[in-house]
Structure to design on (84 residues):
């Protein structure tokens, strides 16, 4: 599957902003946990970006509200694939 680099970069930026703002706090907790598991910084952000992409798809394509509970739950379950 071909990736959309501008979109990927924007999602990475959102994840980085969440980490900087510590909102939700689970972003930093998840990032640190993934690093401790041996994943690189980039790999860790890629995992986290997958969780965010699921939520953004629902918001943009299906006009659903952002599901922060599901987002946080998916972060907590990484590196397991996120559920939609």
């Amino acid at each position: 599957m071909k990736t959309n680099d501008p979109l990927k970069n924007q999602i990475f930026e959102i994840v980085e902003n969440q980490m900087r703002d510590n909102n939700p706090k689970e972003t930093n907790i998840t990032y640190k946990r993934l690093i401790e598991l041996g994943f690189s910084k980039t790999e860790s952000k890629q995992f986290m970006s997958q969780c965010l992409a699921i939520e953004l798809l629902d918001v943009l394509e299906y006009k659903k509200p952002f599901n922060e509970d599901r987002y946080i739950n998916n972060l907590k379950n990484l590196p397991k694939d996120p559920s939609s």
User: Anything to note?
Assistant: The chain has a mean pLDDT of 94. The chain has one domain: 5-77.
